[in-house]
Amino acid sequence: MVNDKIHAAFADFDRIHQLIERAAARIIRTLDLPPWLEFDDLMQEGFLMACEAAHRWDPQRARFTTYLYLHLDFFLRRAIQRRLPARWERSFSDEDEDQLESEQDSLEEVEIQHTVHSLLGRLRDEAPLAFEVLTRFYGVGNQTARSLRTIERDLGLRRGEGEQWLREGLLRLRNMWMEDLAWQSPGEARERMEQGSMVSRGEGKIPRSRDGRCLLSL
Fold first, then answer.
1. Cα angle value 111/116/119 (rounded, 5°)
2. Burial of 62: CB neighbours in 10 Å, binned 0-12, 13-18, 19+
3. pLDDT digits (tens, 9 = 90+) for 93-133
4. How many domains does the chain have?
């Protein structure tokens, strides 16, 4: 049973390798690491963290690549801290806070964007009409945002049905988002809940970046 779960988790090995490679590159770029800690060491730690994460992963809640994407940086930083001697660990902890905050803000936005697009893929499979209405209304991808009346006419819906399907899509996204939040620690989940207008907040509002941009349309 465990082996089947690990096999399922690593089914998209190329994507997992890409996630680990990017996480390792971010850490090399942003942290003051000792010279003996090389990129290959971070890659090795990343795969070890991915194996540990696979044991905690629940296939019913989210794709493994989504779960790993949201947590890999934290897992990898924690693993590195365990390997560092005391003097490097202090340096690791006392880095320039402004730089870290800027990096984290950017990372959080990318994480949210990635998660939302993953959830949209699930919405397309589970409720195609709700997906069509929602993505046309918000102008997802290369589409131009349209009014509900225009969407109703284009999709052959009766007046008022466009709003119903839009609410249905937002509600489904909200529920999916809450499932993903369940994977995070209480503190992380609470922070996500408090970030701007998010799917998990209010009446299913669309997540926005810190400058107010709709992350669905990025």
1. 125
2. buried
3. 444 444 445 444 544 555 566 667 778 888 888 889 999 99
4. 2
What counts of helices (H) and strands (E) characterise the chain? 10, 0
> In terms of residue numbers, what domain contains 72?
2-95
**DSSP structure string for 64-130:** HHHHHHHHHHHHHHHHHHHHS-HHHHHHHHTS-HHHHHHHHHHHHHHHHHHHHHHHHHHHHHH-HHH
Q: ∠ CA 111-201-73 to the nearest 5 degrees?
A: 20
Tokens of 104: 């984290």
Q: What gap in Å lies between CA 10 and CA 102, rounded to an integer?
A: 31
Cα separation of 26 and 1, whole Å? 34
* Domain end (from 39, 62, 95): 95
Flag whether the pTM goes above 0.70: no
Identify whether 165 is part of a domain: yes
- CA angle 53/29/82 to nearest 5° reads 45
Q: Which residue has the higher pLDDT, 155 or 75?
A: 155
Q: Are 189 and 179 in contact (CB under 8 A)?
A: no
User: pLDDT of 56-84, one tens digit each?
Assistant: 887 877 788 877 877 787 778 777 777 66
- What is the C-alpha separation between 81 and 25, in angstroms, rounded? 16
